[in-house]
Amino acid sequence: MKICMLTSGHDIFDNRIYYKEILSLKKQFNEIYLVAPGEKDFVTEDGIIVKCFPKRKNWIDRFEPMNRMFKIAKEINADIYHAHEPDSFQVAVKLKKELGCKIIYDSHEYHPEGFAEHFKFGRSIIKKVIYLYEKHLGKQADAIISVNELLINKFKRYNNNVVMLPNYPVLNEIKIEKEYEKKPMFVYIGGLREDRGILKILEAIELIKDEDYKYLFIGPFETFDFEQKCKKFAKDRLRNVDIKFTGKIPHMQVFDYLKKAYAGFVLLQPTNWRYVNSEPIKIFEYMATKTAVISSNFPMFEKIIKNPDAGISVDPTNTQTIADAIKYLASNHGKAKELGENGYKKVLELYNWSVCEDRLLKLYNELYK
């Protein structure tokens, strides 16, 4: 069977698309293609054939990239096309009409809400229009994949073949032996944006700046202006604090930092509805590396890190409560270790990709039959 993944906005080596779904499918199927934004075609070390088209210049530049994606994907003539955004799935729908292939819509984000955020006015109308557009496309999918119960229930209203594949970590790629350093270290992993609580963390650090702790922010800044804002804050108000912004680093190198960390931050802000109703991969990655979690006190977050406790939930808008959580774990190494161990056990029992891999392979085998 020939499989083709389609993405218009994700990286070629996206954690979910490549390291989870594609490598899981590779265990049973030999011929797998990935059509994605990039500079040139190549074959990965895992034998995945990557076909590239130029990245779009901005978020509104969608028509020409999708035309190029369609031409490339049609030449591949796959049995199943697996798309990861509404616009790449539109390409899949067109391919189904022309080739008679099977198509999968993999929605691991709140696309209508996210698209509407680009507009200053009329967001509710735009969100509704995109929702109706997504619904129209989704009815034509042979299967829909998503990541949490909210999205699953939405898609079940108009498609009978919906499968939940949460963004759980792959256990066999993670080294879980902790190597704590003498100086307590705290990390943040992911894109650096204000609504992800980065400034709140910096402000909390200022409240305890006399304590000898280390802080790592691992990931790219969303904008140059926000980067300058954060670095100016650190320079002016955290002058003697051991703090580092690493930028984007290789996927596997992230775990080298995590195994030394006392705790990891997931302090998304309540101003963004999508964040409040998400299950961030960062939480699971922290837990999988025996790292305690300092998270926003959103119900979906607390459901993950409670029973048994794998971290501390705080009001993400309150810098004092964030500072208190940092100081508590830094001065109670045994508690930080206990929370990390609890999280790891929960990942072994429930929150790991092997559960999702079985569902994914079962879906593909059913579609191929």
UniProtKB/TrEMBL annotation:
Protein name: Glycosyl transferase, group 1
Transferase found in the keyword field: yes
Originating species: Thermobrachium celere DSM 8682
Lineage of source species: Bacteria, Bacillati, Bacillota, Clostridia, Eubacteriales
MF term (GO), any: glycosyltransferase activity
Pfam families membership: Glyco_transf_4 (PF13439), Glycos_transf_1 (PF00534)
GO biological process, one term: lipopolysaccharide biosynthetic process
Signal sequence region: none
Keywords: Transferase
All copies of domain Glycosyl transferase family, residue ranges: 173-345
UniProt feature coiled coil, ranges: none
CDD domains in alphabetical order: GT4_WbuB-like (cd03794)
Gene3D superfamilies noted in UniProt: Glycogen Phosphorylase B
Lineage: superkingdom: Bacteria
Positions of the Glycosyltransferase subfamily 4-like N-terminal domain: 25-167
Keyword set includes Ribonucleoprotein: no
